[in-house]
Specification:
Elements lengths: L1 E5 L7 H8 L3 E4 L13 E6 L2 E6 L22 H13 L5 H13 L6 H16 L4 E4 L10 H11 L3 E4 L9 H6 L3 E4 L20 H8 L3 H6 L5 E3 L4 E3 L1 H4 L1
Parallel strand pairs: 1-2, 1-6, 2-5, 6-7
Antiparallel strand pairs: 3-4, 8-9
Helix pairs in contact: 2-3, 3-4
Length: about 250
């Protein structure tokens, strides 16, 4: 089984969905310390004035001692503001009408107390629209132990994974010998950001996936995979072309 993991992210970028699509299981790493000014509670869309940050206000008192799954949203008006910003930015996009109502239901349809619940509902929506069927689990539901490579190895063992996909920064801390001794194959994502039609002049990479959906519609998954490694199906099991990722 191929496993990957990442912290929960608000309105994620394309590269995260590429990594998730390569795995059988995606573990939401929600039991680590919350970081200010990270993508956990903010991301960018493209407006007529260029990239625009959308940040969910959260309670940050004692955040150094607070796990992500315990982070609360600070006030209620943010969702209407974000939705209005998205409407204004993409109302002229070719696939605006295909997604705006459903996205509005997720953002405005319920009051979220915890940031993790908002991010999870958004992730479910995006995975459905991108037709990515990877199983999703939460680290907070397990007792993973250790640090860095030891933690990843423990997670792999408890979830039954024989392969693990790191992000590109995994090169900085992955102990290859430990994984080899544990008989866990590892690879490192090297995501090549594709270009696609956008509103407002020059192409801007690293926007939220909402930018891609509104601009290319049902072709969004194909664009995400463009120029990047994909999974292949062998006779025995789904396999990742590890050599293409390294």
């Amino acid at each position: 089984m191929i496993l990957t993991a990442h912290q929960p992210t608000y309105l994620p970028w394309l590269g995260l969905f590429h990594k998730i699509s390569l795995a059988d299981t995606f573990c939401v790493f929600d039991n680590v310390q919350y970081e200010k000014k990270s993508y956990i509670n903010r991301n960018k869309i493209k407006s007529s004035n260029g990239p625009l940050w959308l940040s969910v206000p959260v309670e940050t008192k004692n955040h150094r001692e607070t796990k992500i799954f315990d982070i609360k949203i600070a006030e209620e008006r943010w969702s209407r503001k974000h939705f209005k910003s998205i409407e204004h930015a993409y109302k002229k996009a070719p696939f605006y009408n295909d997604y705006i109502s459903q996205l509005g239901e997720v953002l405005l349809g319920k009051k979220y107390v915890f940031l993790k619940d908002l991010n999870h509902e958004l992730m479910k929506f995006f995975l459905k629209e991108l037709k990515i069927e990877t199983a999703v689990v939460f680290a907070s539901d397990y007792n993973f132990v250790g640090n860095k490579s030891d933690l990843i190895i423990d997670m792999c063992k408890k979830l039954g994974a024989t392969s693990y996909i790191f992000g590109s920064q995994g090169h900085d801390y992955a102990d290859h010998n430990l994984f080899q001794d544990s008989q866990i194959e590892i690879s490192f994502q090297n995501y090549i950001h594709p270009e696609y039609p956008q509103l407002y002049n020059n192409f801007e990479p690293y926007m939220s996936v909402v930018d891609l959906l509104f601009n290319v519609g049902r072709n969004a998954r194909e664009v995400i995979m463009q120029g990047n490694v994909a999974r292949i199906e062998s006779e025995d099991q789904a396999a990742l072309r590890i050599s293409d990722v390294l």
